[in-house]
């Protein structure tokens, strides 16, 4: 059939290129699912998956901080088409998830379809040929694991050849982006001076530095999100930090981590046997968990029922907080916004860890950095903090950023140029923010599809479920292309615009816009491109 084979075009002269029926960007959960399902559902093995990182696994490959683990039960955080009966625990660690994902690639025999240490610089639609021209840059092994900022610093200090080895242009009939959101970390806060004077080490939790010894060190952590909740208690307990000062901008709603049926010890002993020997056990439990997660949808609306449900949950969570942390933290750990407005933290260790006298939590914001300390100033007005309170100097040997990821910069740093030479980021800016029809397709960008694109995440369920939904829809769209029945698939502009308008209109009535907070779900202008 037309376009069914990977092949070399124009011989092997200077103008030659490799043609791929399908090019996939990203070897994380979505890219792996896309590759496996192409083989299983459509019988297509003529694809290539490109990833700049040095290993398979996406966000789970790159996030290696102490205590990294899934906060969704593993049985619900795995592919429906490839369940794992042998999870060692209810909430597996990052390394175990990576091992699972690598095992899926081996099971479906797509390992040889994955090209690592390869950066995608630009994807350009060639109207005359009805294909995508993709510019690849081969990276020095391991450099792709660095953040964009660190790669730029390396180029500035060591030259381009320290990062980029070769450049190649390929062409593809179908281009599928499986670029994740929790990969590219935020950089140093621009409004905080003194970073260049600091004599200690500064790094982001998403690029953990295990070569740095934390023992007997004074550590400052900026942020109180999901990552920080997992690693902060370990800094003193497992790594011997002398002190940890954790800076919190606003308190999160913290939900006690769910325990498995029978308790954790019983589960770890018997679940693998039950999954392997009791027919239907894992499927039934997965269904129950999915149903329970969907019940949380009640927390996100704006009707009286939703408000009352949130109030009941908030009361339980505040009771849990006050029973878990020292009294001195009760006030600053009481959120002034509705539960669900921000990403909830599902925690088993952070609250107990705050009882460690070596860990200090504060809402005083970071104002400056010197050679061996940081200065924190007055936070929002509180009854317990006098207006005349002065700034405080905190000793610091190491500063760890846990300030999140560049989530709202969709497809960043990919350059996607569609019909008429328009970059997709420029189109989004013109239309108010990142958007795609059903989170998958964009007018003006034929044969281009995204897995886990704008407005496809939820605030309450497994991202694996959302990813598989997008994969299944994309399979329907690419099937006629692979069969040679059509030259291109493209959504109509009016359909895409109407979809985005309806989504943003509906979100204005949801807790993410009405709950009294600002979160990484939204841009500074208030455009919510993350959830639906």
Structure explained in plain terms:
The strands form four sheets. Strands 1, 2, 3, 4, 5, 6, 7, 18 and 19 form a nine-stranded mixed sheet that branches. The protein has 13 helices and 19 strands. The mean pLDDT is 94. The protein is 29% helix and 18% strand. Strand 2, helix 1 and strand 3 form a beta-alpha-beta unit. Helix 1 packs across helix 11 (463-482). It folds into two domains: 7-184 and 406-504, FAD/NAD(P)-binding domain (3-Layer(bba) Sandwich), CATH 3.50.50.60; 195-253 and 301-401, 3-Layer(bba) Sandwich (FAD/NAD(P)-binding domain). By secondary structure, it is an alpha/beta fold.
List keywords for this structure.
alpha/beta, five-stranded parallel beta sheet, 19 strands, 532 residues, FAD/NAD(P)-binding domain, nine-stranded mixed beta sheet
> How much strand content do the residues show?
15-25%
Q: What would CATH call the homologous superfamily of the largest domain?
A: FAD/NAD(P)-binding domain
Number of strands: 19
Main pleated-sheet profile: 9 strands, mixed
Q: Kindly provide the name of the CATH class of the largest domain.
A: Alpha Beta
Give the helix level as a range of percent.
Answer: 25-40%
The number of distinct structural domains comes to: 2
CATH topology of the largest domain: FAD/NAD(P)-binding domain
Radius of gyration: 24 Å
CA(first)-CA(last) distance: 38 Å
CATH-scheme architecture of the largest domain: 3-Layer(bba) Sandwich
Task: Give the CA-based shape.
Answer: globular
Outline the low-pLDDT stretches.
none
Query: Number of helical segments?
Result: 13
SS-based class: alpha/beta
Average pLDDT taken over every residue: 94
